[in-house]
C-alpha cells in the first residue's frame, strides 16, 4: 500500500492568470526574508501603536482592582492613581460592580 503525501502532480494551468498571492504552487526564492520583513514591520507598528496608546491613556476614576495597564500607564507609574480602597463598603470585599 502506497501513501500519498500530496494532491498529486502539478496539472497544467493557464499562464495568463495573475494572482496577488502568487498563483498556483508558488514558492518564491526569498519567502523567508519577506516573512522576516513583514514580521518586523508588524512588530514595529504594534510597538508604535502601543506606545502612543499608553501615552494617551487617561483614567477618570481609580479602578477597584489591579488592571494590566497599571504597569505602563503614566497615572499609575507616577503614583497619581492607585487601586481604590473599597473595604469600607458594605458586603464582601471581593464584590465588583
Kindly describe this structure:
With 97 residues, the protein is mainly alpha-helical. It contains two helices and no strands. The radius of gyration is 27 Å and the shape is elongated. The mean pLDDT is 77.
Compose a concise summary of this entry.
The protein has about 100 residues and is an all-alpha fold. The protein contains two helices and no strands. Helices cover about 30% and strands about 0% of the residues.
- The termini sit apart by 64 Å
Structural class: mainly alpha
Order of helices and strands: HH
Strand content: under 5%
Low-confidence stretches: none
What spatial form do the alpha-carbon principal axes imply?
Answer: elongated
In quaternary terms, these chains amount to single chain
Count of helix runs: 2
What fraction, in percent, of the residue positions are helical? 25-40%
Radius of gyration: 27 Å
**Mean pLDDT, as a whole number?**
77
Largest sheet: none
User: How many beta-strand elements?
Assistant: 0
Amino acid at each position: 500500500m502506497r501513501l500519498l503525501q500530496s494532491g498529486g502532480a502539478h496539472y497544467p494551468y493557464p499562464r495568463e492568470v495573475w494572482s496577488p498571492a502568487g498563483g498556483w504552487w508558488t514558492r518564491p526564492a526569498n519567502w523567508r526574508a519577506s516573512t522576516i520583513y513583514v514580521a518586523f514591520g508588524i512588530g514595529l507598528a504594534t510597538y508604535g501603536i502601543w506606545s502612543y496608546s499608553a501615552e494617551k491613556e487617561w483614567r477618570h476614576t481609580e479602578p477597584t482592582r489591579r488592571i494590566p495597564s497599571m504597569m505602563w500607564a503614566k497615572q499609575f507609574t507616577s503614583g497619581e492613581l492607585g487601586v481604590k480602597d473599597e473595604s469600607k463598603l458594605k458586603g464582601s470585599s471581593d464584590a465588583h460592580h
